[in-house]
Structure formats: structure tokens, C-alpha cells
Design goal:
Strand content: 15-25%
CATH topology: Rossmann fold
Bound molecules: NADP nicotinamide-adenine-dinucleotide phosphate
Radius of gyration: 17 Å
CATH architecture: 3-Layer(aba) Sandwich
Number of domains: 1
Shape: globular
CATH superfamily: NAD(P)-binding Rossmann-like Domain
Order of helices and strands: EHEHEHEHEHEEHHEHE
Length: 249
């Protein structure tokens, strides 16, 4: 028996929110594993910077400006990818926002719509469009949050959006399974990124958070890469519709 490899040689990988944080870590991780990478987010310049890092590793890269909540822009992202690379092997629905309304009554219509648009509406459309260009063996990786399983007062809309993403993961896996396309979610605990530092600005708050983790620490952004490579590779060929909890225990 051949042991499956985590390498991604020659694969075409789209990472939304690839300009920084977990998305940047996955974009660079996939490039290091041999993939060509499309780096997409709202601000083009930081995407170009990550794309340059990918090229410096000897891989091809494309930077694309996209607001994932806008379905026309989702279509433009997939079109640009197919024009450049001819197909999509892996879609990483990573772009996300987590605004913190003080209470239910403070949730505005605008905050609700934006949170659902980025965390749920975009991933649904991108999954649908990317799957049209995926060969058998394609993989969709949704980046979810532990908040979806353990919602708290201050994560109300975000938690609901990510719970929707979990449901989308299972439903899309069911539809796309017969075509040999797998859809899974990485349900993240706490990782050091800008968005975490915005919600837990002090070291004291971060230490409190770390004390609730079995491993006793917050993850570094790069610690999502192994799970993403696993879900993109044949090593997970019989895994679909799964929510993988990556939370340090
Ligand atoms: N860090 C954690 O502890 C943690 C925990 C659980 C889940 N997660 C999830 O992990 C994912 C990445 O989080 P992160 O901590 O790495 O966040 P981050 O550092 O804030 O990065 C977010 C990324 O998403 C992009 N983005 C935001 N809104 C977008 C939009 N409308 N369209 C396209 N791109 C957009 C941002 O770039 P632009 O500003 O240029 O658009 C950026 O590249 C998110 O889905 C988040 O919910 C993170």
C-alpha cells in the first residue's frame, strides 16, 4: 500500500482572505507543498504581497480583489482563476469577519447582513461556482469557528453564521460527493491573528483564553496548515461533510 502524501504538487488552490492571518498561512503552506495559489481578499495590495511570496517559492500565483459577499465578484474570482489556471482543485473559504455587538438589541440590520454575507453567503456561492471547474478529487475547505458549536452572547451573529457554514459543509458534501468532490470544515479554536488581537487586545485576556485550552496556549497561524493540507490531499480521500475541531483541546 502506498502511504498518501500531504504534498499538493500542481494543484490550483484558491484561498479567500489569503492576504493575512490564517489565510496567508494556508496560501504559503500550499505553495510550499507545491500548489499554485490564488490569493483573494478585498484589498489587492496585501494579496499581491502574498502572491509575490508564493512566486518566490517557484510556484505560480494570482492576486484577486474580491468581496466574497458579492456574488458577481465571486463569479469574477472563479472566472479569473479558470482563465489563468484552467481549473480549481481546492477552494478554501477562509475569509471571515467577527464583529462583536454588545447585546442582541445592538445587532443592526447592517451588521447582521455583513456578517452573514462574508461568513456564509460568499462560501455558498463560491462552492457552487468552483465545483463547476473541479475535477474528481476536488476539495472545498470551509474555515469555521468553535463559536458555531459553543455560541456565547458576544458572538451571536458570527456564531449563527458559522453554524450555517457547518450546515452548508454537510449539505454541499452530500450534493458534490457523487462527483468525487469533498467538502469539509476546520472548526478553529483560538489562533494568533489580527482579528483575535482585535477582540482580545491584552496579554491578560489572551492568557485567560489560553488557560481554557488543554494545550495551555493559543495556536500560531501556521498551525492550521497541516489540517488544510490533509483535507486537500488523498490522505483524506474518504472524509467529507466533516467538521474537524482544531482547538488545542
Ligand atoms: N483567529 C482565530 O482565532 C479564529 C478562530 C475561529 C475562526 N477563525 C476564522 O478563520 C478565518 C480567518 O480568520 P483570521 O483570524 O485569519 O482573520 P484576519 O486576520 O482578520 O483575516 C481575515 C481575512 O479575510 C479577508 N476578508 C475580510 N472580509 C472579506 C470580504 N468581505 N471578502 C474577502 N475577503 C475578506 C481579509 O482581507 P481584506 O481586509 O483585504 O478583505 C483578511 O485577508 C475567518 O473565517 C475566521 O472567522 C479565526
Amino acid at each position: 500500500m502506498t502511504i498518501p502524501s500531504l504534498r499538493a504538487d500542481g494543484k490550483v488552490v484558491i484561498v479567500t482572505g489569503g492576504s493575512k492571518g490564517l489565510g496567508r498561512a494556508m496560501a504559503l503552506g500550499f505553495a510550499e507543498a507545491g500548489a499554485d495559489v490564488v490569493v483573494a481578499s478585498r484589498k489587492l495590495e496585501p494579496c499581491e504581497a502574498v502572491a509575490d511570496e508564493v512566486r518566490a517559492m517557484g510556484r505560480r500565483a494570482l492576486a484577486v480583489r474580491v468581496h466574497v459577499g458579492d456574488w458577481d465578484q465571486c463569479a469574477a474570482l472563479i472566472d479569473a482563476t479558470v482563465a489563468e489556471f484552467g481549473r480549481v482543485d481546492v477552494l478554501v473559504n477562509n475569509a471571515g469577519i467577527a464583529p462583536v455587538p454588545p447585546s442582541l438589541i445592538d445587532v443592526t440590520s447592517d451588521l447582521f447582513d455583513k456578517t452573514i454575507a462574508v461568513n456564509l453567503k460568499g462560501p455558498l456561492r463560491l462552492t457552487a461556482l468552483a465545483a463547476e471547474h473541479m475535477p474528481t478529487g476536488g476539495s472545498v475547505i470551509n474555515v469555521s469557528s468553535k463559536a458555531s458549536l459553543y455560541p456565547t452572547a458576544f458572538t451571536v451573529v458570527y456564531a449563527a453564521a458559522k453554524a450555517g457554514l457547518n450546515a452548508l459543509t454537510k449539505a454541499a458534501a452530500d450534493e458534490l460527493g457523487p462527483r468525487g468532490i469533498r467538502v469539509n470544515a476546520i472548526v478553529c479554536g483560538t489562533f494568533h491573528t489580527d482579528s483575535l488581537h482585535a477582540s482580545l487586545p491584552s496579554e491578560e485576556l489572551q492568557s485567560q483564553m489560553a488557560s481554557n485550552v488543554s494545550l495551555g496556549r493559543i495556536a500560531s497561524a501556521g498551525e492550521i496548515v497541516g489540517t488544510a493540507l490533509y483535507l486537500a490531499s488523498d490522505a483524506s480521500s474518504y472524509l467529507t461533510g466533516s467538521l474537524i475541531l482544531l482547538d488545542g483541546g
